[in-house]
Every structure is written in structure tokens, then in C-alpha cells.
UniProtKB/TrEMBL annotation:
GO terms for biological process: choline transport; glycine betaine transport. Its main location: membrane. It comes from Vreelandella sulfidaeris. PROSITE patterns: ABC_TM1. Coiled coil: none annotated. GO terms for cellular component: ATP-binding cassette (ABC) transporter complex. It is found in: Cell membrane. The keyword Ion transport does not apply. Keywords: Cell membrane, Membrane, Transmembrane, Transmembrane helix, Transport. This is Proline/glycine betaine ABC transporter permease. It is a multi-pass membrane protein.
Length: 276
């Protein structure tokens, strides 16, 4: 007996077509606003001379993590500069910073709400499981009809892909606050807002920072993949090397990605330890 095939793909395509046609003005407005923000941040970083930005990053690393990370940052960024990948590195850094900011702004309120509401927690967890297990390439497909080819689609796909860890860790951190401290706050007559901002969030901040660290790492990996839909940066250098069969150029861009990932990871970890 033949079982009729469920036309799930056709339903999804019809839904995307309806959304893009009905909300085209909204998506165009979001696209223009996002592209303006990307251009402003990218132009600001490009305006600084290479040596000046390198010095600022080294100073930041020294203040947050010490001399060893500052020396490593100088050596790694100097190598990227020497390889002629400074501008692609800046473009990648811009996309990662912008996508992380958007993801964190969305994730923190959702994570707090899920931590305080068991009903919302039961609803949001399966959605996060779905978002994290879906292959990264799939997120590139709906980004194109909504925002077209380019950096805005890369930001859209990156935010969706990198947001779940920030939500999970925020929820986990707040739910792990000892019950005794919550009861003590209740005994002193603290309101719900006072308990959240003066007890739960400060105590859960190291866990929240760990989630933000994971979000940054996922954002960096997704920005590289998003070169397939026209995103600029180191990912486009890797993609160009694949198309032209130049393994040397691909490895150079890959090494630059590794250096940038290590630098961002160490910075966020040191910031987490400082807050803790």
C-alpha cells in the first residue's frame, strides 16, 4: 500500500513566498537599517590604521587578560596583516560583532523569561533543540528570499544559528541560583524585580557570559559559511580558494579565522573570570 507523501517542502515554500510578498516593506526596512549599521561599524574599523587598531586590541587584551594574551594578539594580528588579509578580517569581525549584539539582545530577555516561567521553559526548550540540531546551511535558504544576497542575509542566518546557547545559559544560570538566597530576599521584602536584578542576574552572570562566549564562536563559524550567499570577509577568501583550487590561499584564510576565534574566545573568557 502506497502512503501519500506529505508535501512538507511545498508548504514551507508557499509559506516563505507568502511572507516575502506580504512583508516585503518590513524586510526591506530591516535590510536597509542593518546594512547601514554594518557599513558604519565596518567603515569605523577600516578608518583606523592597521597599527593603531592592532595597538588598541593589544591594550584591551593586556587590560583584561594580561601580557601573554596581548603578545599573542600582536603576533596573530601581525601575521594576518602580513598575509594581506587585514580587510577581510575586519569585515568578518564586523559581522560577528553585529550578529552577536543582535543575538544577545534577543536572547537575554527570552532566557530570563524562560527561567522565571515553567510554562515558557517547556515551550522554548524544544524550539532551541530544533534550532541547534538543524544543519547550519539550511538557515541560508530562507535568508535569501527575505533579504537577498549579501551581508544582511548572513546576519539573519547567523543570529538564528548562534542565539540558542545564550538563551540556554541565561536560563540555566538563573535557575541555578540557590533557593536559600531567593528565600532570604523574600524575607527581606524584595520585589520580583529586585530579586532578579540584585540577586539572580549578578549570581548567574558567569554562566551568562559562558553562553555569550558560545554565541560568539557559533557566530564566527556561521559568518564563514555565509560566504556562500555573498557575505564578505575571511569566509569569502576560503570560498574563493575552493572555487579556484588554491589550497594555499584557503589555508591562509583558515589560519586567520583560527587566530580571530582564539582571540575572541580568550577575551570573553577573561571577561567572564573578571565578572566572576
Amino acid at each position: 500500500m502506497d502512503i501519500p507523501r506529505i508535501p512538507l517542502g511545498d508548504w514551507i515554500e508557499s509559506g516563505l513566498t507568502w511572507l516575502t510578498s506580504e512583508y516585503s516593506l518590513v524586510t526591506r526596512g530591516i535590510s536597509r537599517f542593518t546594512q547601514t549599521g554594518i557599513d558604519v561599524l565596518n567603515d569605523s574599523l577600516m578608518w583606523l590604521p592597521e597599527w593603531a587598531l592592532l595597538g588598541l586590541i593589544a591594550l584591551l587584551c593586556w587590560k583584561l587578560a594580561g601580557v601573554r594574551l596581548a603578545i599573542g594578539a600582536v603576533a596573530g594580528l601581525a601575521l594576518i596583516w602580513n598575509l594581506g588579509l587585514w580587510n577581510p578580517m575586519i569585515e568578518t569581525l564586523t559581522l560577528v560583532v553585529f550578529a552577536t549584539l543582535v543575538a544577545v539582545v534577543i536572547a537575554l530577555p527570552v532566557g530570563i523569561a524562560a527561567a522565571l516561567s515553567n510554562r515558557l521553559y517547556r515551550v522554548i526548550m524544544p524550539i532551541l533543540d530544533f534550532m541547534q540540531t538543524m544543519p547550519a546551511f539550511v538557515y541560508l535558504i530562507p535568508a535569501i528570499p527575505f533579504f537577498g544576497i549579501g551581508s544582511v542575509s548572513a546576519i539573519f542566518a547567523t543570529v538564528i544559528f548562534s542565539m540558542p546557547p545564550a538563551i540556554r545559559f541565561t536560563t540555566l544560570g538563573i535557575r541555578q541560583v540557590p533557593v536559600e538566597l531567593i528565600e532570604a530576599a523574600d524575607a527581606y521584602g524584595a520585589t520580583r524585580g529586585q530579586k532578579l536584578f540584585k540577586v539572580q542576574l549578578p549570581l548567574s552572570l558567569p554562566t551568562v557570559m559562558a553562553g555569550i562566549n558560545q554565541t560568539i564562536m557559533l557566530a564566527l563559524s556561521m559568518v564563514v559559511i555565509a560566504a556562500m550567499i555573498g557575505a564578505d570577509g575571511l569566509g569569502s577568501e576560503v570560498w574563493r580558494a575552493i572555487q579556484r583550487l588554491r589550497p594555499g590561499d584557503g589555508f591562509e584564510a583558515g589560519i586567520a579565522v583560527v587566530i580571530l576565534a582564539m582571540l575572541l574566545d580568550r577575551l570573553t573568557q577573561s571577561l567572564r573570570k573578571t565578572r566572576q
